[in-house]
Amino acid sequence: MRIGNVGGRASLIVDAGAIDIDRASGGKFPADMAGLFECWGDFIAWAREGRFETGAEAFDERSLGAPSPMPRQVFAVGLNYRDHALGEAGLKELPTSPLIFTKFPTCIAGPYDDLPLPVGNVDWEIELVAVIGTRASRVSVEDALDHVAGYAVGQDFSERLMQLSGGMPQFSLGKSFPGFGPFGPWLVTLDALDETNGLAVECTVNGVKVQGSDTSQLIFPVNDLVSRLSHVCTLLPGDVIFTGTPAGVGNARNPKWFLKPGDEVVSTIAQIGSIKQTCVADPCQ
């Protein structure tokens, strides 16, 4: 099942187009994604019955917003792919616990929004994004995925000068400029995915493949991350987790490669879809 944010309205995405959830349910479920997460279990049960009062309508994919446009908490994970941790980052051994930081919610953007480039060195990081569907507090690894609404494709854009400035890294600030957290194009429920061999992950810049891996290479998989986070913070419906990026970031290249106005970044995860950002000069700088 695919659930999208079409023009600000929660919608089921089917081959024929989008089914407006509020209208199709006769008002039983809210029109906005934030409200829908608050009754996620009931919504999923209703959607699986397939008794809709209205049908699908064609829509412009450019109208898609982030599947969770106003999350209360946004978590992110560093050094969570084997090739990125041991290769690019130069670690001698795999970490025994995940490196967690936050992206501030105002960085969240839609799957096709332009990316305003601040002054500095802006880098790409394709990531599998998990969105919480039901409240999770101190859940086990075995039960953790029961609290996940679905997965999406994301980009953890990073301004490296800010991120690495000062005596200690400023991960949260360097990764929270406007537009630095796009994800989508929609939310795919886990029962619609075959993760037997992982989900292929690929990022291109101007058509050049810069990152390629699959989610089987995650050091800490999604269920582990959700469980660990829930033992510290209560995870709320609509919360977002950027789960880490594979090797191929611009900052690790020789010579280094950073984004500039006019560049096009396309991020694709198998069985989910693609998002695309066009880099533009920040009009405020």
UniProtKB/TrEMBL annotation:
<dbReference type="Pfam" id="PF01557">
    <property type="entry name" value="FAA_hydrolase"/>
</dbReference>
<dbReference type="GO" id="GO:0019752">
    <property type="term" value="P:carboxylic acid metabolic process"/>
</dbReference>
<feature type="domain" description="Fumarylacetoacetase-like C-terminal">
    <location>
        <begin position="74"/>
        <end position="278"/>
    </location>
</feature>
<dbReference type="InterPro" id="IPR011234">
    <property type="entry name" value="Fumarylacetoacetase-like_C"/>
</dbReference>
<dbReference type="GO" id="GO:0016853">
    <property type="term" value="F:isomerase activity"/>
</dbReference>
<keyword id="KW-0614">Plasmid</keyword>
<keyword id="KW-0378">Hydrolase</keyword>
<protein>
    <submittedName>
        <fullName>Fumarylacetoacetate (FAA) hydrolase</fullName>
    </submittedName>
</protein>
<dbReference type="GO" id="GO:0016787">
    <property type="term" value="F:hydrolase activity"/>
</dbReference>
<comment type="similarity">
    <text>Belongs to the FAH family.</text>
</comment>
<keyword id="KW-0479">Metal-binding</keyword>
<dbReference type="InterPro" id="IPR036663">
    <property type="entry name" value="Fumarylacetoacetase_C_sf"/>
</dbReference>
<dbReference type="InterPro" id="IPR051121">
    <property type="entry name" value="FAH"/>
</dbReference>
<dbReference type="GO" id="GO:0046872">
    <property type="term" value="F:metal ion binding"/>
</dbReference>
